[in-house]
Amino acid sequence: RIATFITLPGTYYRQVFITDNAIYTRNASNPNNWSEWRALGKPTYTIDINGNGDFASILKALSAYNTNARFIIKKGVYDIAKEYKNLYGSTYFDNYPGYRDSTNVMDRGLFLGDGVELIGQGRVELVFSYTGENENVRNYFSVLNTSQNNIIRNVDVTITDGSCRYLIHDDFANDGGTNIIKNVTCTGHSYLG
Question: Can you say how many angstroms the Cα of residue 94 is from the centroid of all Cα atoms in its chain?
Fold first, then answer.
């Protein structure tokens, strides 16, 4: 819905579009040109395993909005393997080929696109356990994967020893971006160190 439509002097219009999660604005000489909308700040979404947010699953939230978004994660234990099986099927990890030939960035693990923030509120624990035979899971899957300009704060990551590549894989910020990982506790020994 357009909350405010103001005609400024000259031929330009200032419009403000308000949604439940963000505020957008634009200057446009043509009021019917919707391609010029820009977000003010980051859209913010709530993840609550109890179903009292925009999403109950971290994987589903990141799959829906994976660029320039802030996710507030409510307290709880989030089973990442279970989230993958619920979204992609119960045999996802048994048939997991790795990410090298995949077009789905989530095949790396929970992938944070440019500018994505994960902020825990209360005790937030991400757990991952894989005890199957597929070596690709241990060689290629990491619980969290950053890109650039990411923030991960107030989150605990716990894995069964040797069940995945890394707890947090942080080597993708190659375009001058910065990642901030603060108040994060990692427990468990990853497969590659």
Answer: 24
Rounded CA-CA distance 50/67 in Å is: 25
Tell me how far CA of residue 99 lies from CA of 102, 107, 112, 139, 190, in angstroms: 5, 5, 15, 10, 18
Core vs surface per residue 140-166: b (16+ CB within 10 A) or e:
bbbbbbbbbbbbbbbbbbbbeeebbbb
Closest among 28, 37, 95, 84 to 57, alpha carbons compared: 84
d(CA 58, CA 63): 8
| Whole-number pLDDT of residue 188 | 93
Series of mean pLDDT values for 10-residue runs along the chain (193 residues): 50 60 62 60 91 97 92 97 97 93 91 94 96 94 93 95 91 75 94 74
Listed residue (107, 90, 109, 87) closest to 99, CA to CA = 107
By DSSP bridging, strand 38-40 and strand 23-28 are antiparallel
Please report, for residues 20, 34, 116, 182, the alpha-carbon distance to residue 45 in angstroms, rounded to integers and kept in the order given.
9, 23, 11, 20
Phi, psi of 59 (to 5 degrees): -60, -45
- In the 8-state DSSP scheme, what is residue 192? T
Token pair for 2: 């357009």
Query: Quick one: which of 25, 111, 133 has its CA closest to 63?
Result: 111
